[in-house]
Amino acid sequence: MRRFYGGVVRFRALVLILFALASLVCLGLKRLVFVNYDVNDYLPPDSPSTVSIDVMAEEFPGGIPNARVMVRDVTVPQALAYKARLAQVPGVLDVSWLDDAQDVAVPLSAMDQDTLRTYYRDGNALFSVTVSEEDYVQAVTGMRQIIGEDGAMTGSAVSMTNSATGTMDEVQLIGAFGVAFALVVLALTTTSWAEPLLVLLGLGVAVALNGGTNLMFGSVSFVTNASGSILQMAVSLDYSVFLLHRFEECRAPDKPDADAMVEALCLSTSSILSSGLTTVIGFAALVLMRFRLGADLGLALAKGIAISLLTAFLFMPCLLLAACRLSDRLRHRPLLPSFGWFGRLVRRITAPLALAFLLVIAPAYLASNANEFYYGSGQMFGPQSQYSLDTAAIEDAFGKSDTYVLLVPGRDTAVQTALSRDLHGLRHVMSIISYVDMAGAEVPLEYLDGETLSLLMSDEYSRMVLSVDVPYEGADTFALVEDIRALAEKYYPGETYLAGQGVSTYDLMDTVTSDLAKVNLVAVGAVFLVLLLTMRSLWLPVLLVLVIETAIWLNLAVPYFNGTPLFYITYLIISSIQLGATVDYAILMTDRYRENRASLARREALVKTVADTAVSILTSGSVLAVVGLLMGFISSNRLLAEMGLLLGRGAIFSLAAVLFVLPGLLTMTDRLVMGRRRKKTVHKHEMQRGAGR
Questions:
Q1: How far is the C-alpha of 123 from the C-alpha of 367, rounded, in Å?
Q2: Which CATH architecture has domain 2-32+191-310+322-333+340-370+515-685?
Q3: Going by DSSP bridges, is the β-strand pair 461-468/429-433 parallel, antiparallel, or unpaired?
Q4: How are beta strands 92-96 and 219-221 bridged, if at all?
Q5: Cα(247)–Cα(239) distance, rounded to whole angstroms?
């Protein structure tokens, strides 16, 4: 190891050039990474709704309606004119309205009133629109220009467009605030005005390398694109800080800086590497989710932390050595006092805090598992956003509604008629557009024009478009999906396909709830194994994982006690992120305690350990907390905001657990913590006392 680091230091100019070139290339490559804003695209390929969408795309032109557009105060002829204009917007594949279900030449009073109210009510016309996934922004922008500010739009195509146009500006603002805060914290915790800039430069290189290498995935989700760089910066900040503090400790007037850096690298490798590996594993566990958004975020973050580790071990030593003279010229006195007082404070309150910690473990665990959840993207925007206001306007005029598409095999119109009759009998089905509903089973197929027939029947399947008065998710929605599937299965066992936003949300709920136990178990087990191998102790992995997991449970218990529903996706992801991101603090605290116990008694070792590690832990933890909270308060996307809030609050809980609770637990279980080292330490203390006498 010493030989390897010696080589890195010796060829530091070459290392710096290679990293600089790679960073520039990756900054260009990042622009080529496609960002996907559709949560439903990350359902497993074998989920029923995904398979249904694929089959429908093969059998029929157009797709599944993914937008609802309302225009106000129009007559039927004016509504038909709007329909024609909407159909001409680039990216719009299909527009359905009243004339597709009824003959609009007859008086309104003579029409089926339930069907009429589905599309036209009190002078308001509601269109079902299918938008191409590749043209969401262009199509939604074009439709908005046609309907004006008095019109309203909702649906997945609209929500994804709003996410695409608003998220990146917010991400840049969050990143700017995060960098500014990190700069202030680093200025307070270092002793040179140059060192904060050097640390942030190293982080910038790692973030650039990760962003560009995401091109290997082809695309990333909007969650990964919005939070990946920010999380990578906040989580991996401590690697450079740990190395910087070690380097300062190893420097001496009679020792070359290169030798001091090699020594610092050797001394800090174990802590940094074990911290980094546990973080990588915590993120990589998300790959096991069947809901592929977890794999998308997990792979990008795991790769990012691995790159941050390489940057810490290769680029940062060379950068710090190259800037040594500049750092020395810009030295200033420490801006923070010694944390010895803090160590003594923790020593005095360690017993009651440890007891309180043990008492809250069970309630925190139970409360964290009793939350209520949102599963889809229907609640992604705040109540005052344009999307939410438009959705509320449409629901006020027409009620909650969605569009499902059901494919049934063959051209047996008698069976289709029976199925349609039973579907009409379901409480929340308002209208159905299908061959048997429009023409009737008695009308021969050859009497229909080819364009109409192609929308309703293919060589293999008949298509039934159901308008339903349920929201995109909820108990009524999930029950209706189950009822429709049960009826379809009754008439066509194993041969039907159902799709729609509510259907995808149902499958999403079914998928992600099965992921929780698996992902958490693997993440905790893998972190436990890494700690077992690096610390060579059975007790320490148990203790460290218990401390961080309890902090996670406390974090997730807050929404339960507040009565606030969570997005299940963030609930699932945050456990792995908080575990991977904050277990580093516990590892650093434990390593320093064992190191100090080699020469000090328990209580003195506790004080010195807290004093030695508080600055490093607070530097990284405070940045993670502030960046998370900034994301929570700034982001208009409620899913991203919730992830940020949970991350920021989770970092605070983890900081409190590591700084106030873990030291006491280490001293209380000192025999188990030290293991074989304890015998050597006791013998050393006895020899010192003997020498003193």
A1: 49
A2: Up-down Bundle (1.20)
A3: antiparallel
A4: unpaired
A5: 12
Give dist(CA 354, CA 70) in Å, integer.
Answer: 59
531 touches 544 (CB < 8 A): yes
Residue among 677, 693, 687, 692 at smallest CA distance from 602: 677
Q: For the chain, report the end-to-end CA distance as a whole number of angstroms.
A: 42
Contact (CB, 8 A) for 468 and 482: no
Tokens standing for residue 680: 């050597």
Residue 389 C-alpha from the chain's centroid: 25
CA atoms within 13 A on the CB side of 577: 35
Place of tokens 């992604």: 380
From CA 497, how far away is CA 260, in angstroms rounded? 67
Q: Quick count: other Cβ atoms within 10 Å of Cβ 349?
A: 12
Q: Residue 46 — very low, low, confident or very high, per pLDDT cuts 50/70/90?
A: confident
Residues 508, 515, 477, CA angle at the centre, nearest 5°? 25
Beta strand pairing status for 34-36 and 219-221?
parallel
Do 371 and 559 form a contact (C-beta atoms < 8 A)? yes
Report the SS3 class of residue 512. Answer: helix
Q: What is the pLDDT of residues 70-125, one digit of tens each?
A: 999 999 999 999 999 999 999 998 898 988 878 888 888 888 887 888 889 999 99
Q: Please state whether beta strands 219-221 and 373-374 pair in parallel, antiparallel, or not at all (unpaired).
A: unpaired
- Residue 72 is given by DSSP the state -
Enumerate the domain spans of the chain.
Answer: 2-32+191-310+322-333+340-370+515-685, 62-160, 393-510
Each residue's pLDDT tens digit, 317-338: 999 999 998 988 998 887 888 8
Separation between Cα atoms, residue 41 and residue 63, nearest integer Å: 14
CA distance 312 to 240: 6
CB atoms near residue 417 (< 10 Å): 17
Q: How far is CA 480 from the centre of its chain?
A: 29
Topology match between the domains 62-160 and 393-510: yes
What are the b/e assignments for 88-120, b being 16+ CB within 10 Å?
ebebbbbbbbbebbbebeeeeeebeeebbbbbb
Query: Among the CATH numbers 3.30.70, 2.40.300, 3.50.50, 3.40.50, which is that of 393-510?
Result: 3.30.70
Question: Are the C-beta atoms of 306 and 551 separated by less than 8 Å?
Answer: no
342: CB partners within 8 A, 6+ apart: 610, 611, 614
Residue where the block lists tokens 């009737």: 440
Residue that is written with structure tokens 């004119």 in the block: 81
- What backbone torsions phi and psi does residue 126 show, to the nearest 5 degrees? -120, 120
Matching residue, tokens 């038909």: 80
d(CA 240, CA 616): 10
| CA distance linking residue 377 with residue 373, whole number of Å | 12
Nearest to 635 by CA among 155, 175, 299, 36: 175
Q: Which pairing describes strands 373-374 and 566-567: parallel, antiparallel, or unpaired?
A: parallel
What pLDDT, in 10s, does the model give residues 534-574? 788 889 999 999 999 999 999 999 999 999 998 887 887 78
CA-angle at 71, arms to 469 and 120, nearest 5°: 50
Taking the CA of residue 329 as centre, how many other CA atoms within 13 Å lie in the half-sphere pointing to its CB? 4
Distances (CA, A) of 39 to 293, 297, 473, 508, 614: 7, 12, 14, 9, 40
User: Which range (32-41, 444-453, 544-553, 577-586) has the least confidence?
Assistant: 444-453
Topology at the third CATH level for domain 62-160 = Alpha-Beta Plaits (3.30.70)
Question: DSSP alpha helices (H): ranges in 285-385?
Answer: 292-310, 316-322, 324-329, 340-368
Torsion of CA 439, 442, 447, 452, to 10 degrees: 30
Tell me how far apart the alpha carbons of residues 160 and 39 are, in angstroms, rounded to a whole number: 9
